[in-house]
Amino acid sequence: MPVAAQLKVIAALGPKLRIASPRTKILGYDHNWATHPNDVPPPGQSPENDYPYQILRSQASKWIAGTAYHCYYGDPSAQTALHNAFPDKGIWFSECSGSKSLTDPPAKVFRDTLTWHARNVVLGTTRNWARSAVNWNIALDSTGGPHLGGCGTCTGLVTVQPDGSVTTDAEYYTIGHLSKFVKPGARRIASTSFGTTGWNGQIMDVAFRNPDGSTALVVHNENDDPRTFAVNAGDRIFEYTLPGGALATFTWTANLRSKLDLVPLTGATASPDGALAIDDDASTRWSTGAAQAPGQYLQVDLGRRKEFRRVAVDSGGNLGDYVRNWELSVSNDGRSWRTVASGAGTGQLTTIDVRRTSARYLRITSTSAASNWWSIADFRLYN
């Protein structure tokens, strides 16, 4: 449907729905993250990836709740780009189907489907502002039907065999990690993820706070080999070894919640060239690009004075790139500094607890030498 036609439908339908069914939402676009090569628009029509922007810029946008996306081309990061442009509009992920190969053995199809859906649907969409994650179809028969044309290789959550028995497909497990543990009304909360939707072999995760106060953490090991990781929530920590390619969910009750809240770094800047340390993406990093030496530093400008009681400095998947010895200083004007803590780094995550401090600027400085580079994948404040 061309943009102009959809705008006419929305403009006609919106006011009628507002009266007849106020809780019914209109979602615009409902297509892929990027323009599929087979869907190149005819002359005079805009490419798909600009379609939702045109809708949300139009007068008809007042009638729609937001945008729906499918998984068949592009990357979930397109959702964050749209959210940043229109933060008051919602994003729903509305369709993704697996596909069975006609040549690969079932075990390979299962694994490939599970790992791709884990990265892109379960974690990729929800880490990029989606309010829903939907698989299509729920159930198909052993021939992939019934259907009237269309996809002949699509898979469902379950397959109904000719004898009436039911087998579970990979999507049954990927979507189950959300539907079983993430309750209606849950909200995504901050968590440090090192993996990427494009696959980099790291640990990828997403966390939710349920209405009853419990927490659900969904973790995927992108690597083919087992990976051991640690989960640090407040004053508690646990470790787990996840098999290669596996997906797992961990839950804990409200009384185990951290007493500290994340301090948003919205609008903050970091120097020298430190944007990747504060971009809420632990798959990227700031690095010295050279062996550690005294005087190397990362400075963060919060934009205004903020209170904090904890600073977390995470070197990410770059094992060995943690600062060996450090000093934390704060300032309100960027010129006069005072040291609030110093110590030695012992591994990937350096947690610095201080008395409640209010400052606009923070600077963490290396105070010793080491052969490793110093990398910071994630810099966080808590209060």
Describe this structure in words.
With 383 residues, the protein is α+β, with helices and mostly antiparallel strands. The protein folds into two domains: 3-185, Alpha-Beta Barrel (TIM Barrel), CATH 3.20.20; 262-382, Galactose-binding domain-like (Jelly Rolls, Sandwich), CATH 2.60.120. It has helices spanning 3-20, 51-57, 77-85, 106-125, 170-179, and strands at 27-32, 66-70, 90-95, 98-99, 139-141, 154-155, 158-160, 166-168, 187-189, 203-209, 215-221, 227-233, 236-242, 247-252, 262-263, 269-271, 286-292, 297-314, 325-331, 338-344, 349-366, 370-376, 378-382. Strands 15, 16, 18, 19, 20, 21 and 23 form a seven-stranded antiparallel β-sheet that branches. A hairpin with a 5-residue loop joins β10 and β11 (215-221). α4 runs parallel beside α5 (170-179). The protein is globular, with a radius of gyration of 24 Å. The N and C termini lie far apart (49 Å).
